[in-house]
Amino acid sequence: MSQFAGKTAVISGGGEGIGLAIAKALGEQQMNIVLADIDPGRCAELPIAPETFTTDARRVLADPEVDIIVEMIGGNTIAKDFILEAFAQGKNVVTANK
Q1: Which of 18, 26, 40, 66 pairs with 95 at a CA distance of 20 to 30 A?
Q2: What is the structure's pLDDT at 10?
Q3: Cβ(41)–Cβ(16) under 8 Å?
Q4: For residue 55, what are the CA distances in angstroms to 4, 29, 32?
Q5: Does the reported pTM lie above 0.70?
Q6: Cα 24 from Cα 22, distance rounded (Å)
């Protein structure tokens, strides 16, 4: 069993590209995945349960069930603020954009 099995990850920018690829890879490790993207249409066609998608990534930062934040947000200021908030909430953060 994977060391990540049962953990929950939020992937911002998870509706396409690198974020979606990371979500698929973590899902293969039996992680619980929440995709966050500003465009709800990006995830509408994905084979995911509606409750695993949100357009409000900040809402999940305070969720104690969320263990890992994968930041894929474009733009430095928004991404920095999101990462700092995640750290303040005690989350593990992975960022690949900066």
Answers
A1: 40
A2: 79
A3: no
A4: 24, 24, 17
A5: no
A6: 5
Provide the 3-class DSSP secondary structure of residue 21: helix
- In whole angstroms, how far apart are CA 66 and each of 4, 77, 78, 86? 12, 23, 20, 10
Task: Specify which residues 70 forms β-bridges with.
Answer: 11, 94
Exposed, middle or buried: residue 58 (CB in 10 Å: 0-12, 13-18, 19+)? middle
Residue 41, SS3 per DSSP: helix
Instruction: Tell me how far apart the alpha carbons of residues 11 and 35 are, in angstroms, rounded to a whole number.
Output: 5
Beta strands in the chain (DSSP E): 8-12, 32-36, 53-54, 68-71, 92-95
pLDDT beneath 50, residues of the chain = none
